[in-house]
Amino acid sequence: MYENRVVLFIDILGFKNLIYKNQDNTTKITEIIKLIEKLHDLCSKTGEEDDLKFDFNYNRQVSVFSDNIVISYKDEGPAEFYIAREAMVIQGILQSLGINVRGGLTKGELYHRGDIIVGPALIRAYQLESKIAIFPRIVVDRIMEADWCMLAKDFDGIYFLDYLGNVEIWSAFLEYNEDIKTEECLLKINSEIFIDCSTDLRVSEKYGWMKKYISESIECINGRVNVIRFNKGTYIR
Question: Where on the tree of life does the source sit, at the highest rank (predicted)?
Fold first, then answer.
C-alpha cells in the first residue's frame, strides 16, 4: 500500500486571521479566493504545461486544503531536487504577495492519491513544520539527500530551503510589472515588515527572524544576481 515518497508539507501562515479580519470586506475576500485559485493552478501543473518541468513520471501528487499544501513525488531519480525547487517557487511567489509560509520536507512511507494522504512520512513532514521550523522557513529533514546549494544552515543547526539565496529559481514565475535589482527588492521587502510586537512575542520573533534572513541574503546575493522581476505593492504584513 505504501510507497517510498518525497513529501512536502506547507502551512500558509496567518491565513485564518486574514479570513477573519476581512470577512465583511468583499473586495479582500475576492482577492483571497483568487490567490487560492492561483496557488491551486500552480501546484496542479504537470510538467509539459510550463517551464518548471514538474515531471509526472515521478507520480507527482498534490493536495491543497484550506491553508495547507501537500506535494509528494515517488522517491526515485532527481525527485528530491524537483520537489525542493517547487517548494521554493511556491514560497517565493507567496512571499512576493506578502504571505509567509512554514514547512517540512522529508521522505519515507506514504500513500498519496488525490486528497487521500496517509503514512509516516506525512506525520514527519507535519512535525517538521509544526514543531521544528518555528520561523517562516521550510525545514529539510536530515535523511534527505538534497542539493546543498539550495540549503542554508540556521543558527540552531537546522537546514532550510534558502529561497532568497536562489531567487533566480522562482522569480521567473511571478506575474511582474516592474524590474527591480535584487538588492533593492529585498530591501523593499525588509522595509515592509511591520507588526505590533507588544501583543505577541512569538509572532514578533518570527518577523525578527525574517528581517535577519533578508538582511543576510542581501549581503550574499549582491552582485551575483543582477535583476529579478517583482510585483509592486505590499509584501509582508
Answer: Bacteria
Q: What is the DSSP letter of 131?
A: I
Helix/strand/coil for 105: strand
User: 99 in a domain, yes or no?
Assistant: yes
The partner residues of 106 in beta bridges, in order of sequence, read 7
Residue 120 maps to a domain: yes
How many structural domains compose the chain? 1
| Spatial separation of the C-alpha atoms in residues 128 and 30, rounded to whole Å | 32
Structural domain includes residue 194: no
Over residues 23-70, the pLDDT tens digits come to 776 776 676 677 667 666 666 654 444 444 444 457 889 888 878 999
**Where does residue 182 fall: left (phi above 0), alpha (psi -120 to 50 degrees), or beta otherwise?**
alpha
**Maximum Cα–Cα distance across the chain:** 50
Identify whether 107 is part of a domain. Answer: yes
Please compute, for residue 222, the number of CA atoms within 13 A of its CA located in the half-sphere on the CB side.
9
C-alpha cell at 84: 525542493
CATH code of 153's domain:
3.30.70.1230
- Is 132:104 a contact under the CB 8 Å cutoff? yes
> What pTM did the predictor assign?
0.78
Pairing between strand 179-181 and 227-229? antiparallel
**Enclosing domain of residue 35:** 3-174
